[in-house]
Design a protein that fits this description.
The structure is a homodimer. The first copy, chain A, is of the alpha/beta class. Chain A is 46% helix and 17% strand. In chain A, the strands form 6 sheets. In chain A, strands 13-23-22-15-16-17-18-14 form an 8-stranded mixed sheet. The longest helix of chain A is centred in the last third of the chain and has 26 residues, at 581-606.
């Protein structure tokens, strides 16, 4: 097993083994660019380190020593040699870029002797001791985990004593003083002298980099960026070049194009007489890269040429690091540059226009998730400068908004009627809050995860939402504490649903910038994708929005969402509280025209695009009031005693509503509900067809929560009898199909049975995930943090489809369905329908379409194209 | 397709096609016994009838007409022929016996002409018109569904007018009068004359029998007896013989042995001058069969010989029907006779001793489910005679008991301390009620199904329980209405947990009779079974009981059950309400000695038999108080404010506790719980081992609710570290293994991963069934009745393992586990572990053992033997 590679032995295709940084250093070396010599300890060595209970195996140590010898040969320098010392940097480098998440040690090889040697060699005492003190400082921090602040304090003290403020004004003696102070502090803290043996320094540093793979911020970053925990990091060991040897030295960080706008112009910053971390740390204000040209024209020209060459070679915008040592340029890093969403689109389109890449490559280059941020209003960086952040929750639904805090849906409505903008602040939301949520500029909840009710509904509406902010402490029904301040009803707060941050007061937002590149990319995506993209929408407004974003139909109309509005909930409650079938039918008769009207409006908006209507799904008690005053009012309205009403409400209580009397179980117990809904749909379709002749309404009726063929048969019989009767009575023709949601494990296992009756399947991966994992979205927030902290889960399975545990059941269902009906229409209408990696799975699994909330339609279009390009 | 078979064409192996009755009539015919000629319309014809939208296909009608011709040929009589009429019976006959559930029509072929012909032919006017009026009566009832009571009223009226009370005192004229009155009534109700065409009568009757397959009582019977709905019924058409032609006629029903005791002696009843239904209907008091001998010695002797021959032939006790027409014996039915549990065992053992069958056949002959009733006290038939039945619930846990009604666990304890016997009456029970449940003689709940908390716990304890009796209406906290009467605290009621019946007042019970045959059968079962039988037990008492019943170890110790007792719940609550790890550890330290003591007692009882200990499983809020006064008291005890306590309780609330923070999720968030439980187990095992040298404690540690390998790894690490440390500290050796419950669909799908870490699997089929179906046991009772009524479900999947939907996942898990560890120990510890048909599945699927509640251990032993015999 080979654990170490010289840069000259590698290339950019070896990222898995060498990490991104290592592979690119190797690639640049092979291209003949001026890269300081070095080698890479592989990611496999890191994994081995963890396997060996956090010890570096002797074989690896031996190999590293061997490569140090090789490095000494090619550089002509020697580690720890006073007369000709080799100084090296030790840097992390994972397969995917994790900027700043892991550790780096510079100037390794310094000790009390070498520093003297370096002084006489460079004739630069200040430089030598600056390098030494930097090394002690970094080693103490990164390897020994001594408190960083103490070192900063010592520097400040020296500067104070000397009456200066800038690092550059520190003298050589100051640096010597500093190095000594650092060493004393080290000894005091560690109980041993600062290590003088370069190999002791080296292995401790390598180990520190390995360790840093699992530091908390790295873990968090990986979770946020969906990077697996089992990749490990490589370690890059490289000859030091010095940007801090004097005024003909410099160091900088650049992008080959503007990462904010995408403009084709080198963009970056540098410092004279400094080491790389000074630029990043922001202690000194760096210069714009353009200012390098007049001072060091030759170095700048070479740098410009290299930038161009790297772009041509990598066919993408690059993020590079360089150092100029005594006028000579060295490249220290190149990688694909991070960029804003709009820059990402512009660069992709430009690169195609420049002939560097083709459309497929352009599509593959864009991270689909970034499109999200382009569709919602945002706080600009300007406006955020003076904002007071008061809390942090989950970034549940993107966009930014400010308004007056209100605590109930009713208040939201009252404020709205007065023309005021509100942020709805709730412990958690429930379907009863739907009207208030619709009206609110933003939603903040103290409980619930990324797929809580608030989060799901907000994303569906495109309303910004920060969910599960446990810092919000409700003091009573009209106030809460957050960030040390008490907020009452009417106080102003602002939310950023893209970052999860909460701010004091009202922060203005800027509208989303959708440039022409966005349209271009979407057009290209549509050329390649094979999956259809539909949307989950319950209203004409949502539908219109989704169609604008490119939806080809509706994959999920949740009919119950229509019943929470004030004028409808009464009839709904009458229906629920009916004692007899007759009473229930009377109440349903009142609901019928409302529901029919809703469908007509949606069908008209769709203009002939297909729509899948899911029948009533939630447990009935969700529609009933819970507060005393509401119950009393309802009892009066319904003309029953409060006791009777309470008894009825109690009798509807469920221990586990998620696993209760809902979905098609409602239709089995009350078939008249299915009959009413069928009437509403079919009559609406016929009415819309009669009104115009430009298109024909396409209806797909979906029975939810089916787990057994006989269930589906039973409900379908009512649906078909009702539909056919109405069609016949109207003396017309209407194509409609009846299918089912696959959202129970038993539906997957018996999918072949179900396929014999269902004309289509739509996977409800939210509920399916819940049942397969055996935990509910609403309750999981109590223990999921511990699961992430302990690396038991890497991802929220409600956000990213679980291919390991849920995937095989979906695959089983697809195979069984196709064994019965080879061309069956199969789709997904869970939240996963808008998640790129999940869409990739659905593409591979052979589905016909995915359906997602309107604001995720563009993401789905691009992700589907990427999946098609990747897997054909 | 052949839809009709003459009796002479069939045999007893054709039950699927001909039904039980038809197949046995054919068998007797072939054996040469005196069976009136006839034919059978197959069960396939019945299924075809339903497929054809409840119409008898012309082809079938044609075939029936053809067979009527054949019947006319062999009998020499003719349907509808006045001079020589063929009269026939039309009887149902399903594959499995469903006595009295479906319909029968006798004397078909009668009409106004035939009755006259029959009169002159038999010279018996009374007989002729008796037969006619019977036919009109039955046809009106069964085929036309006219009200039965009206006919009874007409008969009563005639008897009253005539001043007589016995049917036998009715004269020929009375019969004519009756026939005419019936015909008039028929015409009045139906609007048409009583049909005179025998073929119209015949096809209407066949259709009525087909229809009766789906009448409500047949549906209910099938559900209770686990008979599939898709079997259908055959129809047997047979020449009538008449037991009502005069005093040298008789009809009777007999068992070849005593069905109550198993004694080898013909046992039965008969009537002179009567038709078969008179015996069954109980209108006249029949004679003991022994009294037939002196009156008709020849017929009796022939009958006795036939009984013997049938037993020898069928190798089982038979239930036969016969008719003697003018001194000549006819056999009308034979079938395996229903018998009491004890008779069942005695007969099986006797048949082996008589050399008729071998041990395997004996074991296969016994319905394992009947053993249940042999282990609990019961109401005798005597004592029930005068009992007033006041309600009916689910027969949730067998046995019978009476006592004073109490409404809370606390009251139960108070009554118990005064030496009183109580029945605990609750809306539903919760883990808090455990002490009261333990003390109660019986438990009655208004809500919940066969696997509700009350039912499961009661079965585990062997306490009788009637669950989900929705007729119980709570008026307030100390009274309820049932059967029209209001019961207050202290009022006496009695329950029969084997029938689900509730009685007013105190009914004495008789202890269970366990005869030596029971022991014999169990011994034989143990010889053949390959599955081990364990028990689910949480206390030494349960454990002892289970071992007496033959359990070979414990398959499930639910550690949480130990924490509901008064002195422990406090420490448990302290643990739950801890704010820091340190506080939690302090509280756990208090629980440690209690739990260790529990384990020591159980291990000592087990005397070296293995036991599987499941770690804390339920959501924590189950342990917290819900009532105001309890909360206030607890706050005081814990020295926190009521507000703080309420906040903590609220924060523990879950929307779907079944899918919440429970099982191993508790250990992931609070590993110190797993550490404490490990300490308790390992220390207990070491202590018990030190005390004696006769046996060594065998411990299996089971992590519940695992869905992901990393979860198991995480918790197992704490377990192993703790266990190994304690073993080392004690300088001893202890074998323990760590495994997991498979109770989530994701655990099945990833069973190969889990098997790499787990040393055994135990399938928790209760939770698995819930997750696969997506409904909770507690909530399903709201809609399951509609599922049974509409034939969507045939069985409660929590009682009988669902082989269609859950089975493939269990099989998948077993296959995946064995692919990693071919000899892995695999068991079941769900409620299904005590259900015969489920045990058959588990045997076939390749499990090592099943574990069930103590009172089901004998059933499991026998079922396992039957599965082994059936499938090898």
């Amino acid at each position: 097993m080979k654990y170490v590679y010289m840069f000259s032995e590698g290339n950019s295709s070896m990222k898995e083994l060498l990490g991104g940084k290592g592979a690119n250093l190797a690639e640049m070396t092979v291209l003949g660019l001026p890269v300081p010599e070095g080698f890479t300890v592989t990611t496999e060595a890191c994994l081995r380190y963890y396997e060996d209970n956090k010890e570096i195996a002797p074989a690896i140590k031996y190999e590293v020593r061997d490569y140090i010898k090789k490095l000494e040969e090619v550089t002509g320098k020697k580690l720890g040699d006073k007369t000709n010392p080799l100084l090296i940097s030790v840097r992390s480098g994972a397969r995917a870029s994790m900027p700043g998440m892991m550790d780096t040690i510079l100037n390794l090889g310094m000790n009390d002797e070498v520093v003297e040697g370096l002084e006489s060699l460079t004739n630069n005492r200040r430089f030598a001791y600056d390098s030494y003190r930097r090394f002690i400082q970094m080693y103490s921090d990164v390897v020994m985990e001594l408190p960083k602040a103490e070192f900063e304090a010592m520097i400040e003290e020296i500067k104070e004593n000397r009456g200066i403020t800038e690092d550059n004004d520190l003298t050589a003696d100051d640096m010597v003083d500093m190095a000594n102070k650092f060493k004393s502090f080290y000894k005091e803290q560690v109980g041993k002298d600062f290590p003088q043996d370069p190999f002791v320094q080296l292995f401790a540093s390598i180990e520190a980099v390995f360790r840093s793979w699992n530091n908390p911020r790295a873990l968090y970053y990986r979770r946020m960026n969906e990077i697996p925990n089992n990749w490990g990091t490589a370690v890059n060991i490289q000859r030091m070049v010095f940007g801090n040897m004097g005024e003909n030295c410099a160091t900088g960080v650049c992008f080959t194009r503007n990462p904010a706008t995408g403009d084709k112009h080198i963009f970056g910053e540098f410092l004279f007489n400094a080491q790389g971390e000074d630029v990043v740390a922001g202690i000194r204000t760096p210069y714009n890269i353009d200012e390098l040209k007049p001072v060091m024209p030759e170095a700048y020209q070479e740098f410009e040429e290299i930038c161009h060459r790297l772009e041509q070679h990598y066919k993408d915008m690059q993020d590079v690091e360089f150092t100029i040592e005594n006028g000579k340029l060295y490249m220290l890093q190149t990688r694909s540059g991070k960029r804003t969403s709009s820059a990402s689109l512009k660069i992709a389109v430009d690169l195609v226009n420049e002939g560097l890449i083709d459309k497929k490559q352009a599509l593959m280059q864009i991270d689909a998730r970034i499109l999200d941020s382009m569709l919602h209003p945002q706080f600009s960086e300007e406006t955020l400068k003076d904002a007071k952040e008061i809390g942090q929750g989950l970034a549940a639904s993107p966009g930014a908004a400010g308004g007056q805090a209100v605590f109930t849906a009713d208040e939201a409505v009252r404020y709205h009627e007065q023309g005021k903008k509100v942020i709805l602040v709730r412990l958690e939301t429930s379907p009863e809050d739907i009207e208030g949520m619709h009206i609110a500029q933003g939603i903040l909840t103290a409980r619930g995860g990324m797929t809580s009710h608030a989060a799901v509904v907000a994303r569906g509406m495109g309303t910004c939402c920060v969910a599960g902010c446990s810092e919000v402490v409700f003091l009573d029904e009209t106030s809460f504490r957050l960030g040390g301040k008490v907020y009452h009803e009417g106080d102003e707060i602002s939310l950023d649903g893209s970052t999860g941050k909460i701010y004091d007061g009202l922060i203005p937002t800027v509208p989303a910038q959708i440039s022409g590149d966005f349209e271009t990319i979407m057009k290209w995506a549509d050329e390649y994708r094979t999956l259809s993209i539909r949307t989950n929408a319950d209203s004409p407004a949502d539908t219109r929005q989704a169609i604008e974003f490119g939806a080809e139909g509706i994959g999920l109309i949740r009919t119950e969402h229509m019943f929470f509005e004030a004028d409808r909930i009464k009839a709904m409650r009458e229906m629920i509280l009916s004692d007899t079938v007759e009473e229930r039918k009377l109440a349903l008769d009142k609901l019928l025209p409302m529901q029919r009207g809703d469908f007509e409006a949606i069908f008209e908006t769709l203009e002939g695009r297909p729509s899948t209507v899911r029948y009533l799904d939630p447990p009935l008690h969700e529609f009933l009031p819970t507060k005393d005053k509401d119950i009393i009012a309802l009892a009066e309205e319904m003309n029953v005693t409060e006791t009777t009403l309470r008894e009825r409400i109690t009798s509807l209580h469920e221990f586990n509503p998620m696993m209760g009397h809902r979905g098609c179980r409602l239709d089995v117990t009350y078939p008249e509900i299915a009959v009413m809904q069928t009437k509403a749909i079919i009559e609406a379709a016929i009415n819309v067809n009669k009104k115009q002749s430009d298109y024909t309404v396409k209806v797909e009726i979906m029975i939810p929560l089916v787990g057994e063929l006989e269930e589906l048969k039973f409900v379908k019989r009512y649906v078909v009898e009702t539909a056919d009767r109405i069609i016949k009575e109207n003396n017309t023709h209407l194509d409609y199909i009846v299918g089912t949601m696959i959202e129970l494990p038993r539906a997957c296992v018996t999918a072949d049975h179900l396929a014999s009756e269902a004309e289509f399947f739509s996977f409800g991966t939210n509920d399916l995930t819940q049942m397969v994992f055996g935990f509910s979205r609403d309750d999981a927030s109590k223990f999921l943090p511990a699961y992430y902290d302990n690396k038991i889960f890497e991802q929220d399975p409600f956000v990213r489809f679980d291919q390991t545990g849920v995937g095989p059941l979906v695959k089983m269902a697809i195979d069984k369905a196709k064994s019965v009906k080879p061309n069956m229409k199969l789709g997904v209408c869970g939240e996963h329908g808008g998640d790129p990696s999940s869409i990739e799975f659905f593409h591979k699994a052979g589905l016909s379409y995915v359906s997602c909330s309107p604001y995720r339609v563009p993401i789905a279009r691009l992700s589907a194209a990427q999946a098609a390009i990747k897997f054909g």
